[in-house]
Amino acid sequence: MEIDKSQQSKDSVFFRDGVRRVDFVLSYIDDKDGERKQERRREYEANLEKAGLELETEDKSESEDGKTYFLKIHAPWEVLATYADVLKIKVPFKANDIPNHTEIPMNWLSTPFRLPDHIMHPEPDFFTAPFNKSKSDFFLIDDKETFFPPSTRNRIVYYILARCPYYKGDHGDKDKKGIKRLLNNGTYTSAFPLHDCRYWTRSRDLNCESERYNLYKYWARFLCFFKEQPLNLIRKYYGEKIGIYFAWLGFYTEMLFFAAVVGVICFIYGLLTYSENEWSYEICSEEIGGKIVMCPLCDKKCGYWKLNSTCNSSWQSHLFDNVGTVFFAIFMGIWVTLFLEFWKRRQARLEYEWDLVDFEEEQQQLQLRPEYETKCTNRRLNRITQEMEPYLPITSKCARTCLSGATVLFWISLIIACIIGVIAYRLAVYAAFASIMKDSPTNNLQVVGSLITPQLATSVTASCINFVIIMILNLMYERVAIWITDMEIPKTHLEYENKLTVKMFLFQFVNYYSSCFYVAFFKGKFVGYPGDYAYMFGSHLRNEECDPGGCLIELTTQLVIVMTGKQVWGNIQEALVPWLMNWWGSRRSRSHPESLYSRWEQDHDLQSFGQLGLFYEYLEMVIQFGFITLFVASFPLAPLLALFNNIIEIRVDAWKFTTQFRRPVAAKAHSIGAWAEILSGVAVLSVVTNAFIVAFTSDMIPRLVYMYAYSSDSGISMKGYINDSLSVFNISEIPDRSRPEDGENPSWFNSSITTCRYRDYRYPPGHEKQYSHTMKFWHILAAKLAFIIIMEHVVFLVKFFVAWMIPDVPSEVKARIKRERYLVQEYLHNYEVEKLKMQLSQNGHSECTCTPMIYPSLTKHEVLSECL
Asked: Residue 524 region, left (φ>0) first, then alpha (ψ -120 to 50), else beta?
């Protein structure tokens, strides 16, 4: 019986009768010219009622804008039970009787980080089994209205909405079905489940939960940044898919703490050994660096310069280019393995606790994408289910895959072309910076000139331009990736996300990392020497050289700008954009009293959380993971920056989900999907990249070779290293196209200077092998290759040993899974026997005394036969 609307709370999540819960809401605007839309809505809503759903419409006169209708949907018990059976949703049948002996050592230390028990454990632990409607009395059903939680209810309703047709009878187009198509063609303006209350206060309806309020109070506020996450409550409210994301993000952040601590120690080691940096003293010394005249770094516009002009960059380079860096690169290779292996164990525990064991098979077989069912008109027999199902012909699949691959290659080529453009900018602008700043660095008198060299100015501006290009390309190819994935028509939601994941990561990988790969592995490696320089684009732009202190400091600059810029921009965008859009969208409702602003109207004014919303959250974190692993040898503080970012990221995401977005449709996921394979691939690649960075980008190996093999001083010393690492060239032999123009040389340069130095190991002029590589060059190259081989083998050996030692699934979880499966079989067996006994008794047979305990060696059917 309906109650007076004036007496019903506007914050209510129930129908007007105050009994039936609103499981889903559709909104629409009744246009004057929308007769076709009205017809679609009438047929669609009629078919929803045929499917068993109950509907109630709020007239536009009741809405705050005066033109929006709200269709409220309720799923009664019969519908929920039927589709819970279809979707094989696991429900409790027995309280968990396995004692939990897990005790954390020194548990009292974690007390400040804990949340109240009623928040961390919102429901008791049960043994569960897939729901079977015909055996509903087998399960622990106390109240049919609350047996299925709201997240499960909205998942079931959305399953129906996504497959319900909007054609009339058998005469319409049978491909026209599903709420997604109705949203795309404007028949409905939105479709969403309701939040249970306002986030800043508890629900005024005593029959309704206040889980959103609890999530905001204990999870989404930034002051809770040091507290644990209420994962069980997150899972209960948002579903397992979102719960798994926050579990992974929290675990990743915890593991980052250890990497950040070791990175800070390595950085401190660089600071403490600052005074022991002998080669920097030589560079900065007037007697050594002040007397070494270096060859021009570019054609025409660059003059000769003195080595001591790079004094500051040499000192800065030592902070990251030291023995501690080698140790940290090896440590991170092992850390990555520990992170992935321990996450597998954590994931296995969540799979059991959240009833996700064997879920992937269910999703693959049962939950086809509505788009796949609509676009695939061909049908064939499924050998497993023995039912006719849609399928995509192999010829069509191959053609779509080839077109998709060609599109991906085209966009990757476009990204590489943009990066080459940035490289061309670096080559072209260096000469301009060198010409403008020629007086300051050479005289080494002005503070600004001594701090900002042409190399640094070029690197910083190029990094900033590259970051802008990255952001622009992101906006473009996100849509392209979605378009080509839609074109492939994936079969299931899991397959769709995996395909999109691979494409987007390939794009992002090339987009974000290509500039770092250039600085790390190409810049300064193919330069030539003053008499025979290497050029890009014919003979116009000379390839860049590294600073005498090495290219590592430039790689550090590139990494810091791109990584920090992405993280800061990402957090601002995630927090500010939804808030501004909600503020603007709800501007009309702010003039109404709160009592006239219904629950569905409040949620309607929030931002919609799309199907791919969680995908972008994963993508952001995986790109960050690449930064802190692939290039960490150049910047040990990268894990610390990532740790600070992730502490903010967790709370920003929590605040965004809880306050700025409509409640997402609950979805199940047993893992982080294709991201796990991507993380494993990045982990393996990181060992290789860091080994090459230490060997070829830093000066660690040449210094060690000099120290132990070529040091002229008695014992182990770095004295004379700078002079030994620079080759000599005769100025008169410099080609005209490379010779500085008049006025470009500094005032101290005169005709008495006949030679200049350059960074290489070549024979001097006058030698029978002049300007060819010396044996020292080959010795250093051999040492670099040996280091790469040894480091890779050591790290991979430790990685495989650690992976072998740590099982993916904890032993107690295996035992509990086996125990649950055994109990399911046993209880179902007993249930069938008791049911048969009741049937026999009702039919007048004598009471059956046969039980499984009397015949323990017999199967269920044999016991029943014996009983009969």
From this structure: left
Of 646, 674, 702, the last residue of a domain is 674
Nearest to 727 by CA among 774, 786, 664: 774
Can you tell me the distance from the alpha carbon of 479 to that of 6, in angstroms, rounded to the nearest whole number? 47
Do 149 and 260 lie in a common domain?
Answer: no
Between the CA of residue 446 and those of 437, 443, 455, what are the distances in Å? 11, 8, 17
Distance CA 631, CA 559 (A): 8
Largest CA distance in the chain: 124
**Phi (first) and psi of residue 689, to 5 degrees:** -65, -40
Structure confidence at residue 717 as a pLDDT band (50, 70, 90): confident
Instruction: Report how far residue 730's alpha carbon sits from residue 766's, in angstroms, rounded to the nearest whole number.
Output: 9
The Cα 840–Cα 868 span in angstroms is 9
Instruction: Give helix then strand counts, H and E, for the chain.
Output: 29, 16
Closest C-alpha among 465, 461, 457, 419 to residue 440: 457
Q: Which residues contact 173 (CB under 8 A, 6 or more apart)?
A: 167
The structural domain count of the chain equals 3
What integer pLDDT is reported at residue 371 of this predicted model?
A: 76
| Axis-axis angle for helices 493-521, 552-585 (nearest 10) | 140
Position 698 in a domain: no
User: What's the predicted TM-score (pTM) here?
Assistant: 0.86
Residues sharing a CB contact under 8 Å with residue 13, sequence separation 6 or more, in sequence order: 21, 22, 194, 196, 197, 203, 205, 208, 599
Nearest-angstrom CA–CA distance, 263 and 7? 62
Each residue of 471-480: pLDDT tens digit? 888 778 778 8
126-130 vs 190-192, strand pairing mode: unpaired
Compute the distance between CA of residue 864 and CA of residue 728 in angstroms, rounded to an integer: 98
Q: Return the top range by mean pLDDT from 457-466, 664-673, 825-834.
A: 664-673
Distances (CA, A) of 119 to 112, 195, 210, 400: 15, 18, 11, 48
Q: What is the 3-state secondary structure (H, E, C) of 816-832?
A: HHHHHHHHHHHHHHHHH
Q: Are residues 281 and 205 in the same domain?
A: no
Range of the domain at 324: 238-288+306-332+394-589+597-674
800 to 331, 342, 786: CA distances (angstroms): 14, 14, 21
Q: For residue 713, what pLDDT is reported?
A: 61
The pLDDT score that the predictor gives to residue 854 is 44
Question: How many Å apart are CA 669 and CA 267, to the nearest integer?
Answer: 40
